[in-house]
Amino acid sequence: MAICFSATIEGVEREIVDGPHLPRSRREEVAAILAASSKADQDQAGRLREALVFSGSEQVDGYLGVFLTEGSTPRKSVVTKKLCDARPQIAQWFDAETGRLERLIERRRALTTRDRTQALFGYFYRMEIYVPPHLRKLGYWAMPVLHGDRIVGSVDPRFDRARGELVVNKVVLQPDAPRSAMPAIRRSVKELAEWLGAEKVVWA
Which residues contact 29 (CB under 8 A, 6 or more apart)? Predict the structure, then answer.
């Protein structure tokens, strides 16, 4: 997923826990209603209340636990049909919140990946789709290139389906990239072209 060039994980996490549909000021009231319903709804009430106790990333994970399973997949149902029928307004709140969180969850994962890449490889990477053109350094679709145990640079490819061509718009090597980096990049680009079904590679 592409992320805004100025986005931070802290900002996204604030958005996650401070949404308009289930604001923190309303959650205890909602939890009380869930607690008076079925066992499944009672479990959700417990998760909602636990999230109120935590802070920082723990609070975010706790709150997302209302909507995601332990395997981080969306719950088939956040509240039971019985509660939806009895409290349609609450059902609407949860439906709206589920939809709002989908994009934020993906954005958080993308930012986490970006930050881990920097921590592991000392390489700051961001997809530059949302970076203003005059500020782009790597390219619109630029992707980092892992060579051995190092990130040696980035490649900005574009697949022209009409022409059957994989166009490499730009290659940016790290200052300390080894001589073997470019031949390795060419091999990787060739493999990408074969996987896409491109008939040829064009180096811009």
Answer: none
In whole angstroms, give the CA distance from residue 64 to residue 48.
9
Tens digit of pLDDT for each residue in 21-64?
999 999 999 999 999 999 999 999 999 999 999 988 899 999 99
End-to-end Cα spacing for the chain: 25
Averaged over 170-187, what is the pLDDT? Answer: 93
DSSP-assigned beta bridge partners for residue 160 = 165
Rounded Cα–Cα distance for residues 173 and 185 (Å): 10
Out of 1.10.8.640, 3.40.630.30, 3.20.20.70, 3.40.30.120, which CATH number does the structure's domain 128-203 have? 3.40.630.30
